[in-house]
Amino acid sequence: MPRLALGEWVDSAVDWLQSHLSWLFDAISSVVTGMYDGISAALTAPEPLLFAGILAVLAWWLRGLLAGVLAFAGLALVDSIELWEDAMSTLSLVLVATVVTLAVAVPLGIWASRSKTVSAVTKPVLDFMQTMPAMVYLIPGIIFFGVGVVPGIIATIIFALPPGVRMTELGIRQVDGDLVEAAEAFGTSPRDTLLRVQLPLALPTIMAGVNQVIMLGLSMVVIAGMVGGGGLGGAVYRAIGNVDIGLGFEAGVSIVILAMYLDRITGGLGRQVSPLGRRAAAKARAAAGGLKVWHHRPRPVVAVAGVLVLALVAGGLSLFGGAGKDATAAGGDIGQGRKVTLGYIPWDEGIASTFLWKELLERRGFEVDAQQYEAGALYTGMANGQIDVQTDSWLPTTHATYWKKYQDRLEDLGSWYGPTSLELSVPSYVKGVDSLADLKGQAGRFKGRIVGIEPSAGEMGLLKDKVLKEYGLDGEYQVVDGSTPGMLAELKRAYAKKEPIVTTLWSPHWAYSSYDLKKLKDPKGAWGKGDGVHTLARKGFAQDNPEVAKWLKGFRMSEQQLTDLEATIQQTGKGKEQQAVRTWLDEHKDLAEKWAPAPGGASAASRNADGEDERTRPLNVAWFPWEEDIAATYLWKAVLERRGYRMNLQQFEVGPMYAALSRGQIDVQFDGWLPTTQKRYWDAYGDKLADLGSWYGPTSLEIAVPDYVKDVHSLADLQGKADRFKGRIVGIEPGTETMNILKEKVLPGYGLDGEYEVVDSSTPGMLAELKRAYARKEPIAVMLWTPHWAYDEYGLTKLKDPKKAFGGGDRLHTVASKEFPRRYPQLTKWFKDFTLTEKQLSGLENEIQRRGSGHEEEAVKAWMDRNPGIVDTMAPL
Amino acid sequence: MFLCSTFANTRSTVCRAGATDRHAPTREVYVSRLQADGLYKVFGRAPDEAVRRLAAGADRGELRADGTTAAVIDASFTVDPGQIFVVMGLSGSGKSTLLRMLNGLLEPTAGRVLFDGRDLTSLPARELRQVRATKISMVFQHFALFPHRSVLENAAYGLEVQGVPRAEREKRAVEALELCGLGGWAASWPDELSGGMQQRVGLARALATDADLLLMDESFSALDPLIRRDMQDQLLELQKRLKKTIVFITHDLNEAMRLGDRIAVMRDGRIVQLGSAEDILLRPEGEYVASFIQDVDRSRVLTAAAVMTEPERDGEGECDCPSVSPDTPVAEVCAVSARVPHPVAVRDADGNVAGTVPRERLVAFIGGQEPDDARPVPCAWAASASAKEAAHA
Question: Which UniProt keywords apply (chain A) (predicted)?
C-alpha cells in the first residue's frame, strides 16, 4: 500500500488558503471579533447581580416564577465564586457562535428541505463536520485566525452547524403533507407556504435544533479555552493544567448553570414563539391548578417592562461608572484638517508609497487628496503648485528630463528607496540562464521574445538601443512592446505553466515577492547605475508643512517592506489601495509611529524604538503549567509590576504558544527548552522569534524511580522488571519533544520498547500519579526533568543514561516575538541579563508548590522577601 | 367556451327531490363549468411514451412492469354549473389523482382541464394560484386543518392568502362558519373539535372564499356513519342554497348515489361508466360496475318514476287512495303499497296521474330485476309467494 500523502495535501491546501485568502480570514476574524466584543461589552456592562436580575425576569416570563428564582440563585452563585466575567465571555462566545450558526443553518436547512439535491449534498458534508473531532478544527483555526476567541468560535460554528441544519430540514419535512397540499390548494405561493404553514409548524423542531446548537456551543467552550478562548472554558482548562479540583469544579458548575439556563430559556422561547407551543402551555397551565404562584408568569408586556427598567438602571450605573474613560488616544491631530495633495504615476511603488502616505497623513489629521497623473503632467502640476508632493521620482536618470526642466520650482525631500535597478528577469525554473550573456543562443527556448512594457518607457529605449546591442542579442531576440499589466499577465501565465519567459522588469517590484524570479546579471553595466526613488515637493511645501516635510525626509523603506506592501495592494485589488495599506500597517503597527511620529512624552529609559513608553502597552506573556515556568513567569510579573509594567498572563499548550508568539499575539515566554526539547517549534517558527538568551541551565531529562526501588539505578536496570512497574512508564503531555525522545530513542536504545508502555498524560497528572504511588510505596517509573521540585519533595533516583539516549541537556531560554527587542528595549536588556541559580529556582518552586495553585503571587512575594534586592538585580534602573 | 350538454336528454330520468328545480335556471344555455379532456397522469420515467402506449390500448399492468404507474388514463367528462359530480372508485383507482389535476395541484401528463373556458393546464403558476385562491376550493379527507390556527383563522385562511383585510376576512369566515353550523366555535382550536365539526371547519374554509367550484376529496370518509349521513344531508341542504359546482370523490357507492347528480365510476385509472345514479344502478356497464352495485340499497336510490308503468286502464289510480310523487324513493312507495289493495298511483306536481306502480313490479324491482323483466306469473300460489318475498325484503 503506497503511503497517501493525505495529511500533506491538507497541509499544503491550508498553506495555500492562508497565503491566498488571508484577507478573507482577516475579514471573518474582524467580523467575529467585532460581534464578540460587542456582545461581551453589553453583557459585562451592567452590575453582575443586576444583569442576573434581568436574566431572571426573562426566565420568569418564559418559564414561571420558580424558574426565575432558580435562575437568579444560580447566576448569583456564579458571581459569588468570582467567575462572572468568565461566564459572560463564555456566554458571548456561545451567543456569537449561535447567531452565526443559525444565520447559516436555518436558510440551509430550508433549502435542503425543498431540494433533494441540496439535501443529498449537505448530508455527507454535515456528517463529516459533526464526526470530525472538534479539536481538529482548532489546528487550521489557529493558523487562519491566530489564538483567541475567533478560532474557538469558528470551531464551535462548524461543530454546531449540523444539528441546526438537520433539525430545520427535518422540521419542515415533517410538516404533514396534507397541510402543505391544503395550503397549495388555496393558492398559497411557495414563499407563503413556508412562512404561514411550514415554518410555524416546524418551529418546535427548529427550536429544538437551536437548543442543540447552544448546547453543543457550550460543550465546545473548554476546547475553545485551549486556544485562548478564555471564559469558563479557559478556567476549566487552567484547572486541568494545574489539577486544581476546586477551580475545575467551580468553573464546571458555572458552565452547568449557564447550560441549564440557556436550555430552559430556549425551551421556553420555543414554546413562546410557536403558536402550537403557546397552546400546549396554556393547556398545561389550565390542567395544573394548585401552586399557581410558582407557575405564574408575567404577561409579555410586564416582562419587557421589567427587563427594560432593569436594563436602564444597569445602563445608567455603567454610564456613571464608565465616564471619563474615553480620553482621546495618543496620535495627535497635527494636521487639523489641512489639505495635502499627492500626485502619483501608476507604477506599483508609486501607488504603494502614495497610499501609504495618504493613510499616514490622514491618521495625523490631514485631509489628503491623491490623484493619478501621467509623468509629464505630474511634474507640471507640481511646478504650478497644484500638487504638493509626489513620492515616485526616479532620479537622477529616469526622470532626469523632468527634473532638469522644473528643478527650480521643486524641492527634493530625499530618496526613500534605492538603489533601484532595471533588469531582464527569468523565472528561477529556467536553468542555465543567470546573466544577460547567457541569453545568447537560447532564443529557441524563449520563442525569440523578450516581453516588454510600454514602448515609451525609458527602460524600453535603453533595452533596445543599448542593452541588446551590448550583449549581441539584437538579432536574436525581438522585444515585444506591450504594457506593464500585459507583461505581468504574460509572466503570470507562463509562470503557471512553467514555460520559459524573459520579462523586462525593475526593482523594486512586487513580482519578485509573488514569483520566484532571477534578475539577469549585467556584468557589462549596460543598464547603467540605478536610480533612487525620491520624494519631491512643490517649492514652499516644507515651509507650509514642516512636520510633513520632516516625516517625508526621514522616510525610508526596505525592499522587503516595499515589495510586501506592493504585494498586499496587488492581492487586495484595484480601488482598494488604501484598505490594503491599512491592512499592511496593522501588520506593521510600529511603522506608522516610526514614519510619522506623533509627539508625546515618556521617560527616556523606557522609550522604545518608536519613541513610545514601552510600559504603555500591556505585555502578553504565555506560560504553560510547568513548575519552572510558573516560577519564572510569576517572578517576572511581580518584578515588572513594581517597574510600572502591566502583564497579561495566558496559559497555553506549547504548539499554539509558539504559533501565537510568531504572530506577535504573545510577546514573550520564559520556558523555551532549547536546543533539544522544543526544537521542532524553534525550527518552525525560529525565524519569526527572538531568543533573549538562557536564564537557567543546564537541564536534563530523565526517568526517575522512587529510592525505595532499590535495584534500579540506570535505564538498563529497568530491563526485565516490567512486572513490578506494571509495564508502565508514566509520561507527560503527548506530542512534547521529551515524550517523543522517550518513545523513539530512549526505550529502543535500552531495549525497553517491547516491555514498557509509555502512558500519555500531563505533567500534573504524572505528578499526581507519582504522589499516589509514593504514598503507598509502590514501584513507579516517571518521566522527569531537572530542575524539578519533585526531587526536593520525594526521595527519587534519577536513572543513569550511559548511552546518552536523552541527548544533551537543554537550557531554559526566554523567547520573544520578533518585534519584541525593538518594542521593549529596556525589557530586552533585563531579560537577557536574567539568570537564576538552581538553589533560587528550586526554592521558588517549592514555595509555589507549598502554597498551592491560585496562590502563586503570594508565594513569589514571600520568596522575594527572603531574597532582598532581587528586583534591582533583575530590573536595574 | 360553452358546451351544450349531451346529457340533457338523460336528465329527465333524474327524479330526485329538488333535482329538477336545481337545474332549472341553467336549462336553456347548457354551460359546462368544468371539462376534463383526455386527462392522463403517469408517474415514473418516460411518461409521454407511456401515454402513447396507453392510448393505444395498453393496460396498467403492462406499464407497471416498466416501473411506471398510470394513475389516470384518458379521463374525459364535463361538469355543469350547480351540479354535484361524483367520482366513485376503490382506493388506487386514480380518483384522488384525477381530482388534483382539476385544480392544478398535479400537472396532467396529457390532456386538458377547462374551467369556465380557461385551459388550466396551460396557465403559468402564478395565475393558476390565483384561480385556486379565488375560484376553486378544496375539502380534504383528513380535514387538513392548520393546527396552529384557531377555527376562525382556519376558515379565513383562503382569504388571508388573497390578502383580504383582517376585518373583512374574519367577517366572511364567521359567516361561512355559521353556514356550516359552527357559529359559536370561532375561537376554538381544531384539536378541540370532533371529527364532524372539524370537517365542517374544512367546509367553511372552502366556502369562505366564495369559490364557484368545490373539490371534495373523500371528505366524509373519515367520519362515523351517522355523522357521515348528517354531513351528506347538510351538504345537500347547503347546495340547495349555494348552488356551487361540486366534484365529490368517494369510494362509497351509497354516498355517490345519494349525492351525485352524475357519477363517474373509476377502475384502474379509467372511467368505466359515466351517468346518473339510475343509469348505473339500472344499466351497469360491465361486470365490475354490476358487482359494485349489488350492495346498494336500491329502494332508497330508485324512485317511483323509475318503477311506474303507464296506467293499464283509464281511470286507474283516479281514486282518493294515497298516491306518491315521481321522486318518492321506492322504499316509501312500498310503505304506501302495503296499505292500498291496488297499484299505487304516481301523481306529478299538478296532481295528474303519471303512472302506477303495481305491487308485483315493486317486489321484482327490489329483488334486483329490471322492471321490464318483471312479468307477473299467472299462478295463484306464485303471486302469494312473491308477496311473502316482498314482506321478507
Answer: Cell membrane, Membrane, Transmembrane, Transmembrane helix, Transport
| pLDDT for A371 | 75
Q: Which residues have a Cβ under 8 Å from the Cβ of A703 and sit 6 or more positions away?
A: A715, A718, A729, A742, A746, A781, A782, A783, A784, A798, A799
Of A185, A188, A189, the CB nearest to B138: A185
B363 with B220, same domain: the answer is no
B interface test, pick of A176, A178, A186 with most B CB neighbours within 10 Å: A186
Sort out which chain A residues have CB atoms less than 8 A from B142's CB and list them: 178
CB contacts, 8 Å: B126 with chain A: 189
Q: A761-816, pLDDT tens digit by residue? A: 778 778 888 888 888 888 999 998 888 888 878 889 989 888 888 877 788 899 99
Which residue type is seen at A531? D
From chain B, the residues in CB contact with A192 under 8 A are: 161
Task: Name the percent of chain B lying above pLDDT 90.
Answer: 2
Q: Give A274→chain B minimum CA distance, Å.
A: 8
Domain membership flag for residue B174: no
Find residue B247's DSSP bridge partners: B85, B215
Which CATH fold topology does A6-284+294-316 show? MetI-like fold (1.10.3720)
Q: Give the pairing type, strands A478-480 and A449-451.
A: parallel
Q: Please give the C-alpha separations between residue A649 and each of A542, A658, B150, in angstroms, as whole numbers.
A: 47, 15, 60
Residue B336 and residue B362 in contact, taking contact as beta carbons nearer than 8 Å: no
Contact B144 A279 (CB under 8 A): no
Query: Is the residue at B183 inside a domain?
Result: no
Q: DSSP of B339-380, one letter per residue? A: H-SSPEEEE-TTS-EEEEE-HHHHHHHHTT--GGG-PPP--H
Q: List Cα–Cα distances, A467 to A436, A443, A853, B76, in angstroms.
A: 9, 16, 73, 91
Q: What is the CATH T-level fold of the domain A339-419+532-595, as seen in this structure?
A: D-Maltodextrin-Binding Protein; domain 2 (3.40.190)
Residues B254, B130 share a domain: yes
A865 vs A862: CA distance, rounded Å: 5
What Rg do the C-alpha atoms of chain A give, in angstroms? 34
Cβ A392 vs Cβ A354: under 8 Å: yes
Cα nearest neighbour of B161 on chain A: A188
> Which CATH number describes the domain made up of A619-697+812-874?
3.40.190.10
User: Final residue of a domain: which of B253, B275, B296?
Assistant: B296
- The strand pairing partners of A345, in sequence order, are none
Instruction: Give the nearest chain B residue to A189 (CA atoms).
Output: B129
Note the pTM of the prediction, 2 decimals: 0.59
CATH code for the part of the protein at A421-519 = 3.40.190.100
Query: What residues does CATH 3.40.190.100 cover in chain A?
Result: 421-519, 700-808
Same domain, yes or no, for B292 and B331?
A: no
Which chain A residues are within 8 Å of B140, Cβ to Cβ? 178, 181-182, 185
pLDDT, greater one: B306 or B7: B306
Compute the distance between CA of residue B327 and CA of residue B13 in angstroms, rounded to an integer.
10
Q: Which residues pair with A704 in a beta bridge?
A: A782, A798
Do B216 and B342 have their domain in common? no
Q: Residue A606 pLDDT > 70, yes or no?
A: no
CATH superfamily membership of A700-808: Glycine betaine-binding periplasmic protein; domain 2 (3.40.190.100)
Within a domain: B141: no
Chain A residues with CB inside 8 Å of B204's CB?
Answer: none
**Do B240 and B381 fall into the same domain?**
no
Chain B CA closest to residue A182: B144
Compute the distance between CA of residue A238 and CA of residue A241 in angstroms, rounded to an integer. Answer: 5
Q: What is the DSSP string of B191-226?
A: GGS-HHHHHHHHHHHHHHTT-SEEEEESTTTTS-HH
B361 is in which domain, residue-wise? 301-392
What's the per-residue H, E or C state across A121-172?
HHHHHHHHHHHCCHHHHHHHHHHHHCCCHHHHHHHHHHHHHHHHHHHHHHHH
